[in-house]
């Protein structure tokens, strides 16, 4: 039983692709007798010929990954794309470094571990990029 003509007509009537046309298996004889678009329209109205729902792409896997990423997972070296400066700009990195170092030397001054003269010297060194990290400042002070 070849119903390709009926399938083509049905797809034109329902304005959809041929793969989305569904024929009721119990009424195939009625469908075979339908030769005009008008006949097909009647069968569509009688729900003998139907339109299958569109298939979509599930977002469940994406949502699962998103939950993991929000926890901080899946962000290792192998998952990163682009330069490190694309993720955190050089300027932003510098600002973060300088702010943390200035906070440290201010804390040391407030606790009276260093005096104002040493503080000013350290402040200028921080501004000049002399120290790599907070730990480097502590090592520098330990040597003095």
Describe this entry's structure for a reader.
With 144 residues, the protein is mainly alpha-helical. The protein has 2 domains: 4-51, 50s Ribosomal Protein L19e, Chain O, domain 1; 86-143, Non-ribosomal Peptide Synthetase Peptidyl Carrier Protein, Chain A (Orthogonal Bundle), CATH 1.10.1200.60. The chain is built from 8 helices and 2 strands, in the order αβααβααααα. A two-stranded antiparallel sheet has the order 1-2.
Strand and helix order = HEHHEHHHHH
**Tally of helical runs:** 8
CATH class of the largest domain: Mainly Alpha
The CATH architecture designation of the largest domain is: Orthogonal Bundle
Strand ordering within the main sheet: 1-2
Q: Provide the domain count.
A: 2
For the biggest sheet, the summary is: 2 strands, antiparallel
What distance lies between the first and last C-alpha atoms, to the nearest angstrom?
Answer: 97 Å
Low-confidence stretches: none
Strand content: under 5%
Keywords for this entry:
50s Ribosomal Protein L19e, Chain O, domain 1; single chain; 4% strand; two-stranded antiparallel ribbon; 8 helices; Non-ribosomal Peptide Synthetase Peptidyl Carrier Protein, Chain A; mainly alpha; 144 residues
Concise synopsis of the structure shown:
This protein has helices at residues 4-14, 28-33, 37-45, 60-70, 84-87, 90-110, 116-127, 134-143, and strands at residues 21-23, 49-51.
Helices and strands, with pairings:
Blueprint: H1 4-14, E1 21-23, H2 28-33, H3 37-45, E2 49-51, H4 60-70, H5 84-87, H6 90-110, H7 116-127, H8 134-143
Antiparallel strand pairs: 1-2
